[in-house]
Structure formats: structure tokens, C-alpha cells
Amino acid sequence: MHAQKDVVKRAECPEGMGIYLTSKNKVYLGVPEGMLGRKLLIGGTVSAVSDPGAANVGQMASGPLMCVIPTVEDSLLVLSRPQVAGSSRADDLQTAMDRNFSAPILKRLPLERRGGRIVFDITSFVTKAAPKGADFKPGNEDGTSWYDGLKAFEDNASVKLYQTLEAGGLGGKATVSMVSTVSVLALPARPMRPRLQDSRIGTFYTGSLAGGNRFDLNYLQDGLQPYRFANRWRIEPSDMEAWQRGESVSVKQPIVWYIDDAFPELWKQPVREGVLAWNAAFEAIGLKDVLQVRDFPSGDPSFDPDNLKYNCIRFIPNTTANAMGPSWADPETGEIVSASVLMFNDVVRLLNNWRFVQTAQVDPRVRTRKMPDEVLQEALVYAVSHEIGHTLGLLHNMAGSAAIPVDSLRSPSFTAIHGTTASIMDYARFNYVAQPGDTDVRLVPPSLGVYDKYAIEWLYKPVPEASDLWDEASRAEVLIDAHEEDPFYRFGAQQPSMAMVQYDPTARTQDLGDDPMKAGDYGIANLRYILPHFSEWISDDPDYSHRRQLYSQLVTQFGRYLGNVESLIGGVVLYKTKTGEPCVPLPSQKQKAALRWVVSQVAASAWLDEPSVTERLGLHASESAKAAVSVAQYLAGSAPVAVATAQSNGSTYTSEAYFEDLFDAVFHGGKYTEAEHVLQRALITFLTRRSAPAKTQENKNTGFCFGEDTPPTQPSVDVAAQSDTAVYRLAFLQKVKKWTRSRRNNPEFAYIYSLIY
Q1: Last residue of a domain, which of 134, 164, 189?
Q2: Would you say 14 and 153 are in contact if contact means Cβ atoms under 8 Å apart?
Q3: If you write DSSP's letter for every residue of 543-562 in order, what string do you get?
Q4: Is the pLDDT score of 215 beyond 60?
């Protein structure tokens, strides 16, 4: 931008930023000289798209970029990233840290000025930050990619990118047109004091810009000490003295949420309620009106829902049956500076299906093809509250539901207070424990649970008397210390995918209560009650499509009950404490009972093949047979490894005992159901094909420290060296071989006999 004629489009704020587009398709940013040294956050969101299968409006496609507004050296601008990897609590050690963790230089640029502003080229940042930015080629010959829509304000500016590219759409690979808004935001001149992460509460965290740890060098400990910051908003009392006197005060910068004007009218009130529910947690620590909700303003040229300055809840009309709540944080402090919630239209289909298969036994309102408005709104409040929790910095807490005694879920007085879980950040879902005839029982999770209010208190309660972030952390942790032994305050990290062993049965998704077998008994009884009533309750479904969908969900729900109990076999419970991380194996009798329970449920699973429902499904495999195969696969592979893992933590349930119990349960010598025959055949098939797995999920004991490096999900660990399951697998097969020899002429066992011989 060497001359006035180079600029073809511009936007300027008199006292703030300017943004310019040149004839050569370059984007320049202009900042007042007083902003030199301020840090910039550059990020992109999707503003419009021709195919929602490729991207979602409002989506933050990738993490933001960060740089420092250039300093001037010898008529050149030096653009750098802030150094956030190393620090020291000791002043005389900071010099060494500064030299060895210096700020990386991104580029040097010619010094240019325009209208009292320092001006520099940000084209490469814009294209990198934009969704699908790697495919963006500005000014291409076919005219399908260009810049436009420049806006500038006091501390931020934005530009829109128009691009057409090949991407995966709803129907597969497609040519997709996309509009993206890239915002450049100047971070506050006064950084927020960070709060060090404590692994006993689940928060998103910020480490170094490279994604790793920060390191502290001090005289208190030997060696560099890793730490990370908990992500949180800058929430400060408007009157600190009044707050310290115990008065309830407003905050300097409330978190303002804007509701998409594209939402169906029916959704808007539950969206508001889901956001504002979190104010109760802040009010408990003396801060009022922290979260506020507004509609998209009309006639306001400064408002742009895709700009980082605005936190928006967006309505996305596509087939995704979900919702999400991403946020962006200042990499230097962990301060959350922007967030969004995406509510996909088809989340209502998911909520409808869940509500039916989990509560139709007790709630006549859901015995219909389409949920009544009041039920839908109740479910939407739950979904929005969960996503807002993520935007406040909270991870999933999968241990929330395990705090609640199963039979308490049938109590009107208990569920009126606690709902189905101690944390809205759990995947506890709806009350599948409630039985036909139970009245006035709450069927949905609470908008906020005990754990949620506690997590907000630790994360956001001011500690003005602290001298520095280390002192603040030691004062804030007193709250966690006081509740460390209480299950209602326990954080259970999300475990990896269902395809691998989930070793902690108290931190599972989609479960309820402290006893998976008892909860499973209630849940399966309800499924068996619901299934024969399908056609009675849902009569306005001429092509059977909705009932087919519900049937699939019901079968899946049955599988969840089996999986919840399967995880008891070889299960260990993890407790994060200040003095370590004990792994407590479940009693062997509980593990034995779990094995018997799973096999007995499969044996009695013929009810899944309800003729009044399945006769209209067309060609399909028996669901009871498929359940038997799935259980056989788990018992042949994952369960033995789980047992071996538990053994290493002191379990008395050995691999030898497990395989003996497995034989007794599967080959009991009585009359077998068809599902049991499938289980027998599948079990032998898997055992003769599999070798001992090398890995399972087990938490790495990282010890306890402020801001420790703790991943949001449990990692895997190699257990091959401690596993003796291969030996007992062979012994099991030999036992089956002997057992079938005398039955080789029986058609029921001919297949097993042929496999072994």
C-alpha cells in the first residue's frame, strides 16, 4: 500500500483501527501508534454457506492466531508472537527465562503510515484464520473468491472472505460457496490475572502457544515446573469494596449473549432460560447479572454476529442432531474473549427420541410422534445450559450422575432439587430409572447441579487479597480441599471412545445413579414396557419411519445399559486428590455379579424382537442376536484386558477367575435360549481370532500440583507386560473343547465343535 490509489476499499474508526483492501488483493490493518505493543487475536467464523454439510454458520473452524502489534525498529515493523512458555517467580531468575524463552519473530515489514496510523499487511493472517483458509486464493480468474465487507472500530476490525471450493457436503463431495468473517481484536492492555488449573475440577485450559506446558523456574522446587491456566472470562465486581462487605454487586463486563433472529419463536424462551440459569451460580458468590441475553439488534451497523466482539447463539438448520459451545481464549492468560453456541435444528429429533425411549413409561406427554411444546422447551433448556457451561470454561464431568443413589431417582422430593445428576456437564440425559406409576418425579437434569455451582465458585470467585497468581491459587484451592471426599463435588474426566475399554464405571456417558446393575434393571423393565406399546402410542406414522427410528434408539439404549455394567468387570474408580490419584478396584464379588448380569440379560433378550414392531421393519437381523455378538466381542477382548488392568491395581478378581466365571455363565449346562447360542458361537469365534490387546485406558498418575498437565480425557497405557489373559484364554478354549466333545452330535453345539476342532 505505497500510494493512495492502491486502496480500493477501506473502513476506519476515527479513534481506533482502520482496515484496507488494495488493488492487489492485499489486506492491511491500521492501528493508532498508542496501540504498539498490544496483542492481537485473529480468528474466523463462517457467515454463510451454500451447503451446511461443509460448514456451519457461526462455526469457529479453528483456534485463533495471536501476534503482537509491531514495534518499530530502524524504520521496520517487527511482528512477533508473545512468549508465554516460560516465567519465574524469582526476579533474579527471570532474566534467564527471558533469554531462553524469547518472543518468536514472525516477520519484519516496511514501516508505513496512513491517517495517523501504523499500517501493515495482514493478508497471510486473514487467509490462515479463515475457515477453509488453506483453499482460499483471492482474486482467482473465475471470480469466485474475493474480499469485501470491511468494518473498523476502536479496538477491532473485520473483513469478509468469499470463496468457492471443493468440500464434503450433505450429499458427499460438492462445490461449496462460503462467506467467512475474519476479525482482528486487540486484547486488553491490562492482562487478566490467570487462575492456575487444578485437575480436581474439569476446565478447559491454556498452555503455551504451541499447545504444551508453561514452565516456572523457582527456588521452591528442583527443576522447571509445568503448569497451565484454567480458561475463564474476566469477571470483576463493579464495586470490590461493596463485594468484600458481602453485598451482591454487578460486574464490570457482563457476558452478553445475542440470540439469532433465525431461531424458531418456540426456541427463543428456552434458549434464554438456558443461558440465564447460570446466573444462580454467580449470585451464590455475590455477583449478579453476569450473563445477559439480547436479541440480534436491528438497524445497528456496528453489530456483526460473526465478529469476535459478540457472543452469539446460532440456529443451524441441518441434519446434525447435536449442539456445541466453542470458545476462544487469550493464550497468554486463559481469558475467554469470545464464544458461540451452535444449536442444530435436528437436536430436537435427538431429544425427541431420547425422551421417548427413556421416559415414555412414566410420561404420557411423550407418547406421540412429535413432542409437545412444553416438553421440547424443557429439553432445550437442558441442552443450552450444557453448552453454556462449556463456554464458561467447564469440561464434561462424567462422574456427576454416579453421586446419586439409584432409588433416589424415583423420589419426587430428591429429583425436584437434584434432577438426575450432580452436574449439567454430565451426559446423564433423562430419568430412565423412573417406573410406571411414579408421580411428580423430575425427568430431566437440573439446569445447574451441585458440582456446577461449586466449579463456578472456584473458577470465578475473586481473590483480591492474593499477592500473585500463585498465592491466588493456594487460596482458591481451599474450597476444593474442603469437598475432596464428597461425590457430589467429584470431577470425572471423559473417557475415550466406546470402542476401547472404559475402565472407570463411575465416569461413563449416558448413565444414571451409583449402581449400574440396579439402574439397568429399572431401565430394561421400562424398555420392555414401552416396546409393545409402539403402535398404540404412535398411530400417525403411516410409513413407519418414526417408529423405525424409535426402535433403533430403544435398541441403542439397551446396549447402553449393557455397556454400563460391562465396565464394572475389571473396573477401577479414579479419585483425583491433592496427595495423589488412587485407583480403587471394584470388589471381586461386584465384578462377578456384573458378568452374570450381562450374560443373563443377553439370554433373556428375545423381547427385543417384538413381532408387532419388527414385522414392519423389512429385511433385518435379529436385534437380540446382534446384542449377543456385541457382548461376546467385549467379553472376549476388552473385558479380559480390563481385568488385567484392575489386577495391577490390587484387584482380587484375577484373569483365571474371570475365565472360569465366563465359562460357568455361558456354558451353564441348562436349557439355552437362541440368544445364548449366538453368544456361545460368537464368543468362541472371537476368542479363537484375537490376540491379547496391548492397550487399554488407564489414567497416567501425574501427581498433584497447581496447573498440572492433565489432559481432558484419560490417556491409554500399555498393559501387555502385565496381562496374563492369553494363557487363560487358551485354558478356556480347552475347557470348551472338552465340554463340547460329549455334545458333538448335538446340532446346537456342532458349530462350536467345528470351530475348536
Answers
A1: 189
A2: no
A3: TSHHHHHHHHHHHHHHHHHH
A4: yes
- Is 279:248 a contact under the CB 8 Å cutoff? no
In the numeric block, which cell numbers belong to residue 268? 427463543
- CA 702/CA 699 separation, integer angstroms: 9
**Among all chains, which residue has been given the C-alpha cell 398411530?**
539
> pLDDT tens-digit profile of 353-381?
999 999 999 999 999 999 999 999 999 99
Per DSSP, 318 falls in state S
**What are the pLDDT digits (tens) for 106-118?**
778 787 888 889 8
Q: How far is CA 367 from the centre of its chain?
A: 30
Instruction: Please write the tens of the pLDDT for every residue from 153-169.
Output: 999 999 999 888 777 77
Q: Which residue has the higher pLDDT, 291 or 615?
A: 291
- Domain extent, residue 120, equals 4-75+111-189
Is 196 a domain residue? Answer: no
According to DSSP, the residues that pair with 336 across neighbouring strands are: 329
The number of folded domains in the chain is 2
| Averaged pLDDT score across all residues of the chain | 87
Q: How far apart are alpha carbons 524 and 716 in whole angstroms? A: 32
What pLDDT digit, counting tens, does each position of 505-528 carry? 999 999 999 999 999 999 999 999
Q: Is the dihedral of CA 163, 164, 165, 170 positive or negative?
A: positive
Dihedral-angle region of residue 650 (phi above 0 means left; psi in -120 to 50 means alpha; beta otherwise): left
Q: How far is CA 464 from CA 229, 333, 354, 472, 476, in A?
A: 18, 17, 45, 8, 11
Q: Where are the alpha helices (DSSP H) in 134-285?
A: 240-244, 265-276, 279-283
E strands within 202-322? 205-206, 214-217, 225-227, 229-230, 255-259, 291-295, 311-316
Kindly state whether residue 703 falls inside one of the protein's structural domains.
Answer: yes
In this prediction, residue 221 has a pLDDT band, given cuts at 50, 70 and 90, of: confident
Q: Examine residue 26 and state whether it is found in any structural domain, yes or no.
A: yes
Spatial separation of the C-alpha atoms in residues 465 and 712, rounded to whole Å: 31
CB neighbour burial string for 520-554, b if at least 16 within 10 angstroms, e if fewer:
bbbbbebbbebbeebeebbeeeeebebbbebbebb
Give the pLDDT score at 660: 95
Say how far apart CA 488 and CA 450 lie, in whole Å.
6
Q: What is the mean pLDDT of the segment spanning 300-328?
A: 89
Choose among 327, 245, 21, 299: nearest CA to 150: 21
In the prediction, which pLDDT does 497 show? 60
- Give the largest Cα separation in the chain, rounded: 97
Considering the domain boundaries, does residue 485 fall inside one? Answer: no
Bridge-based pairing state of the strands 195-196 and 229-230: antiparallel
Amino acid identity, position 340 = S
Residue 455: what residue type?
Answer: A
- DSSP annotation of 188 reads P
The angle at the Cα of 398, spanning 397 to 399, to the nearest 5 degrees, equals 95
Q: Which of 162, 189, 216 is the last residue of a domain?
A: 189
Q: 157 forms bridges with which residues in the sheet? A: 152, 184
Lowest mean pLDDT among 285-289, 570-574, 694-698: 694-698
Average pLDDT over residues 221-244: 93
DSSP 8-state assignment for residue 495: P
